[in-house]
Design goal:
The chain is of the alpha+beta class. 17% of the residues lie in helices and 32% in strands. It contains 9 helices and 27 strands. The protein has helices spanning 2-6, 32-36, 168-178, 198-208, 211-214, 235-238, 276-291, 316-328, 378-381, and strands spanning 11-13, 16-18, 43-48, 57-62, 71-76, 92-95, 98-103, 109-117, 125-131, 140-143, 152-157, 184-187, 216-219, 226-227, 230-231, 256-260, 263-267, 297-301, 333-336, 342-347, 356-357, 361-364, 385-391, 396-402, 406-413, 418-426, 432-436. α8 links the parallel β18 (297-301) and β19 (333-336). α7 (276-291) packs parallel to α8 (316-328). The chain is globular. The N and C termini lie far apart (51 Å).
């Protein structure tokens, strides 16, 4: 009876139940302000791709550092550091090109810095660190892109958004464990739930740990990265993407493109789907990128799906304006979020059999713990498309392997088990088949 009174807080040590002494009060909850408070030590370090990823690389980080002192150092990755000092002249120091402070609701400002490394060698491993000349991060490695199409892998996530501090980390870490050589991570929006929450952005960065510091990141904003129609004040200081979008200031660093080892990645902002001017600007820009594309493969990512998997959701402006362009120009993958479930399919007109099609593959996925019920695929079938795979109440990560003549796509659950997969094969003339992957 005495053991029962101690309850679930008791520990069994050497066969003896050990718990809090009678009268002890429960621990005080560690406050969000203390957990997330910035210091001179860099954190939230991220690799951000440029338009020339074989010879340049951006890095962003947070730290209490004056702009004049914020800096990064880089050298070709040595065999050892520590007691093995780099050769004289091997280390290049780059001062931060930009510093932005974000006022938070936790009683302090978070200051983000951006540095850009230039003059790098293609397909070369480098080691870098960031800091203020005294307080440094650890050394971290990355490899520049090859100049042309070379095999590589990337990871794709749907919405993290909820349970970022509890359920999401195991997804991110299992994905990296399964795909440790990934060169890119694609996030299809709703990384967090509240656009301007310092606490949630801190949780998101901790969920990824060191991974964002050594793998390039391509993210698009979801509806939860907006508040009152305004983009999160954290977005542009953290995600300093190429300013090569449609040219409208409202789309800066939310619509952009990156060419990486034979793949053209195109990021779009579907939060503007009700704004005729901004949709038209994105549509014209998108067609230009698709029409004049020297890359063999094309991957497009945005938040609100062309074909919705849950509820009565419907995005006709996205579907009607961009869908025909995806089909016309033979986009390979369209990676989306928003619907907190999994759905994968294609236009019915491109179906060749129950196992094969020849068109664009549309995918919706979710990495976080918030779940929606499937709608039976009615938004697909009602708009000339078919669902080939779906699931609800699952957390997923997707591993994509790019090669010269094929892309292999596999979706796995948070526990590492296989859920879905397919292989896109395309010859040099652009003829394509998409075949179901048998686990």
């Amino acid at each position: 009876m005495a053991l029962a009174a101690i309850g679930a807080t008791a520990l069994l040590v050497g066969g003896v139940a050990v718990g809090p002494a009678l009268g002890d009060s429960a621990p005080t909850k560690f406050s969000a302000a203390e957990i997330n408070k910035p210091t001179p030590m860099p954190d939230r370090i991220m690799l951000i791709p440029t338009t020339t990823p074989s010879t340049t690389q951006r890095v962003t980080w947070r730290a209490e550092a004056e702009p004049t002192w914020a800096q990064a150092q880089i050298l070709e990755a040595p065999r050892a550091l520590g007691e093995v000092a780099p050769a004289e002249g091997a280390v290049t120091t780059v001062h931060a090109a930009n510093t932005s402070s974000v006022n938070t609701s936790l009683g302090y400002a978070s200051t983000f810095h951006t540095a850009e490394f230039t003059g790098l060698k293609p397909n070369t491993r480098y080691t870098y660190r960031v800091g203020d000349g005294t307080n440094w991060s650890e050394w971290t490695d990355f490899t520049t892109a090859a100049g042309d199409l070379e095999p590589f892998s990337f990871i794709y996530y749907g919405d993290a958004q909820n349970y970022i501090d509890s359920a999401v980390p195991r997804v991110f870490r299992q994905a990296f464990a399964d795909q440790p050589q990934a060169k890119m991570i694609v996030n299809a929006g709703d990384l967090i739930d509240s656009a301007n929450s310092e606490e949630q952005w801190g949780q998101w960065h901790r969920a990824d740990g060191f991974i964002n510091a050594q793998v390039n990141n391509i993210s698009v904003p979801g509806n939860h990265e907006y508040s009152g129609g305004q983009l999160s004040t954290f977005w542009r200081p953290q995600f300093v993407y190429p300013d090569n979008g449609p040219g409208n200031v409202d789309l800066k660093q939310t619509a952009y493109s990156v060419d990486y080892q034979g793949v053209r990645f195109i990021a779009l902002d579907t939060n503007k789907q009700s704004n005729a001017e901004l949709m038209a600007a994105q549509t014209a820009w998108l067609e230009g990128l698709l029409k004049d594309n020297p890359n063999k493969w094309t991957v497009v990512t945005f938040h609100h799906p062309v074909y919705s998997t849950t509820g009565t959701r419907n995005n006709p402006n996205v579907r009607n304006q961009w869908g025909p362009l995806f089909e016309k120009y033979g986009v390979d993958l369209v990676l989306q979020g928003h619907d907190h479930s999994y759905g994968r399919g294609n236009k019915v007109e491109n179906s060749l059999s129950a196992q094969v099609h020849k068109g664009v593959t549309y995918v919706v996925s979710v990495s976080g713990g918030k779940m929606y019920e499937l709608n039976g695929g009615v938004n697909w079938t009602g708009n000339g498309a078919e669902v080939r795979s779906s699931a609800q109440d699952v957390q997923l990560y997707q591993m994509i392997d790019v090669e010269a003549n094929q892309i292999r796509f596999e979706a796995r659950y948070a526990n590492g088990e296989h859920h879905d997969g397919f292989v896109i094969r395309k010859n040099d003339q652009g003829k394509k088949t998409v075949v179901e992957l048998k686990p």
